[in-house]
Design brief:
Blueprint lengths: L1 E7 L3 E8 L4 E2 L4 E4 L6 H14 L6 E5 L3 E2 L2 E2 L12 E2 H9 L3 E5 H12 L8 E7 L3 E7 L2 E3 L8 E2 L2 E2 H5 L1 H6 L4 H19 L3 E5 L6 H4 L8 E4 L6 H14 L1
Parallel strand pairs: 1-5, 5-9, 10-15, 15-16
Antiparallel strand pairs: 1-2, 2-3, 2-4, 6-7, 7-8, 10-11, 11-12, 13-14
The protein binds beta-D-glucopyranose.
Beta-D-glucopyranose binds next to helix 3.
Amino acid sequence: MEILGIDIGASGIKGAPVNVKTGELVAEHHRIVTPQPSTPEAVAEVVAEITGYFNWKGPVGCTFPAVIKKGISYTAANVDNGWVNLNVEELLATATGYPVLVLNDADAAGIAEMEFGAGQGRGGVVIMLTFGTGIGSAIFIDGKLLPNTEFGRMEIRCQEAEHQASAKTREEEELTWKEWTKRVNEFLATMEKLLSPDLFILGGGISSKHRKFLPLLSTHAEIVPAQFRNKAGIIGAAIAARRHFR
Ligand code: BGC
């Protein structure tokens, strides 16, 4: 069975049909740069463009980089403020003409990794972190998601973690891998102090470069790169939609 998964990010919006029984993309993903300003209307148009590109007729799973409860977004850390208190599911269902399930982007990435990737079959406390424009988090307890955790926004020495250690910050401040991992290590140590995880899965765009930075990270818990890299959001969105619309 196939479901169209769409991953809305602060810099790009990408989608692809996903075989939800295997977690594989059944076509090359299609990516469009996120409009600036990233208003709900402009983003909804892009989502409709992606469903049109695949000539998609059916339910859609879609991620969004915010706290999402019952289809409504409550935050807008890296997107236009017009998203706060907005029913994203309604907006996108109107734009595409099909039912849409919306969930937090890191939660979706975690769902994909737990089902088919680096967290497959892993019990205990697993923390997925995505490093991109911001830092997303998803926590699983014996495979069950605790949704909408926002650990990237946790303050460490009076500054949100994602403003110190996201992939975007690394680029903007031109940090070396050593400088950047020093900040990530502080973030991971704080997470460990609070949550004692058994496994960290590191994802987001930066995970393709894991050979450069994983050896510089030191945690008590095991730490592995995301298997689906930055496609995890697309895959997780499709899996979540399949579960929801079943
Ligand atoms: C948002 C989170 C999101 C993360 C990664 C943060 O700024 O608050 O909801 O998961 O960025 O995109």
